[in-house]
Amino acid sequence: MKTFLLSLTLCFTLLGFSQNDTKAKTLLDQVSKKVKSYDNISLDFKYVLHNSAENINQETRGDVVMEGDKYVLNILGITRVFDGKTLYSINPEDEEVTISTEDPDDENSITPSKMLSFYTDGYTYKMGEEKNIKGRKIQFVKLTPMDSNSEINHILLGIDPQTKHIYNLIEVGNNETQTTLTVTSFETNQTLSKALFSFDKNKYKNYYINKLN
């Protein structure tokens, strides 16, 4: 779960023009500006983990609704609801709700709302290839960790230059593991229920409540 969320929430900080491609900077700035203009964002996505050396190939789908720091994420049968202060992880199979706190301002906090924010420390970047994927031109930006001890070799962020929306994110690890997050639907400024980001304990009376400090 944490590996998935890390892929979902990758953000990028500009570390100085001399270290980075100015064309890549311009494109990332345009995407960030576009994302910040929306009141809310709803995504459906496909997540694939592949490691040929270990013969691992896993695929799952999910969806997330984000409004500011608040979000509702559904993946692997678990629903995660964050109301801005408290995170509720609901597991119907185990009939358990785990309650924890999460600080959206914490740089180490892993939240889906950071996926499209784009700015965190630790990467240099440059323009990559432009590919035609299912009739769409997708421009890739390659991000390389500045930390030589990072488990990540590089990240490829695919952007639709027409819409300025993210198409996919490909993370390549030093252990040959590749994780790919592909956005399959992207909707914005939807009419959302006021209760969407709230946890209704009455719906889970028979669940075990696990409160974490």
Question: How are the elements arranged and paired?
Answer:
Layout: H1 2-8, H2 22-36, E1 41-51, E2 56-67, E3 70-75, E4 78-82, E5 86-91, E6 96-101, E7 123-133, E8 136-145, E9 152-160, E10 165-173, E11 178-188, E12 208-211
Parallel strand pairs: 6-12
Antiparallel strand pairs: 1-2, 1-11, 2-3, 3-4, 4-5, 5-6, 7-8, 8-9, 9-10, 10-11
| Oligomerization state | single chain
**Number of DSSP strands?**
12
Q: Estimate nothing, just give the exact number of structural domains.
A: 1
Strand order of the largest sheet: 7-8-9-10-11-1-2-3-4-5-6-12
Number of helices: 2
Write up what this structure looks like.
The protein is mainly beta and 213 residues long. It has a single domain (2-211), classed as Clam (outer membrane lipoprotein receptor (LolB), chain A). It has helices at 2-8, 22-36; strands at 41-51, 56-67, 70-75, 78-82, 86-91, 96-101, 123-133, 136-145, 152-160, 165-173, 178-188, 208-211. Strands 7-8-9-10-11-1-2-3-4-5-6-12 form a 12-stranded mixed β-sheet, with helices on one face. β1 (41-51) and β2 (56-67) form a beta hairpin. The longest helix has 15 residues, at 22-36. The protein starts with a helix and ends with a strand. Residues 10-19 have low confidence and may be disordered.
